[in-house]
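Record type: monomer structure entry
Structure origin: computed from sequence
Chain ID: A
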Amino acid sequence: LYNFNSQKNHNISNRKSQIITKIKNIRWKIGKYQNKFHQKYTVCAQVYLKTACPHTENGKGNYTMQKLKAFQEKPARYAAAIVAAGALLCLTPAAVFAEDSLDMSTDYPGITVTAGDTVSFSLDFYVEEACDVSLSVDSIPDEWEGYFEGDGNQISVVHVPTSSGSVISDDTSDLVTFTLSVPEDAAEDTYTVKLAADGGTEGTDSLTLTVDVTTEATGVSSFEAEYPEQQGATGTTFTFDTTLTNSRGTGQNFALTSESEDGWTVTYSYDDTSVTSVSLDANTSGTVTISVSTPETVSQGTYEIPITATGPSDTLSLTLTVDIIGTYDVSLSTPSGNLSLDAYASTDESFTLTVTNNGNVDLDNLSLSSDLPSDWEISFSEDTIETLEAGESQEITATLTPDSDAITGDYVATLTVSNDEATSSAEFRVSVKTKTTWGIIAIAIILLLILCLGMVFRKYGRR
């Protein structure tokens, strides 16, 4: 009949002994009444002692009730006590001795918050047998909002697996989160929220949460950089190690955003993983590495990069500063990049040069100079460039004149552009050639000489 473990059977046995003892006491009291009732009460007591409950011998309980109907008023009160005692034994064990196994708890049922905060309580459950547990909010202050959440969704029922022994298993730990929103205008006071859980055959349980609302901040979350100001040249990637701290009594997910100049790139990494948001548990902190890449064409100057970490309860700001130092760089070439040309002795040869400022600082007083073969000459349309802005280019025409005695062959002419901060040189290969007209004249002269010699031999050859 009793399908219980040894402990419950022991409890049942003790309770039966107590009830039997009471029945014996009642029998003793019955003896004080008239003899005509003594036999009837004794029979009734013996029936209950013998049968214990009607489950063992069908009909015994009904027989006893018929006997008791004949009792008079005063002794009937004692008979009623006998019936009540017997009824305790007659009830099924689950109804009489069963204890609720469902237990709902949280690690921190009492917290302190400020008005406007949203806090979360992780709920743990214990049951002896797996069951579905219905969740509800029994009481909550006016204008406060609270809901149960599981796996990212609002829920009202949760399936709780069987717990192991008297310990809450990993499967039921943090199974449900209760999220509570405190109004912005909540007065400073102590409030309670009562949660209820109904597990059916596993029983019911309730949990009272105590929330102290204070006007003083419970913790100041922060976003700080170890070295918020750095210096470097254009094209440098600056790395900032920052610490993001969540001082709230509940976890927060911080979204990371930035405001930077066009062409700049800002990225974030957490635990060596590229991220755009960071989740921090209550009263914890984490290291966020911020990388700032600058374009090659950025001008010299100081730049600020505002970084924002936005969470449910906190919006944190951090300003990083990058100081781009002056970069001086100039180059000399031609529009096509070709550094070779043909020329003729004592003949002007013009070509175009391109001067480019590759730095991030304007270049002033750039002058052009040359290193040429002996007796060669060169001139420029502009010998000096007064100002060449960062990232800009300017074209100049150069005219080269080889020496009149230059023989056919390849020569090197070196041209240079420079000022006090930057310099650049380009070597040009110059191929000197002989003009075709001079060759024709030479051939004509040679032919004329041959003709003259022929005429001389013809006239004076017979002599």
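Annotation 1: The first helix runs from residue 6 to 30.
Annotation 2: Residues 66 and 379 are 140 Å apart (CA to CA).
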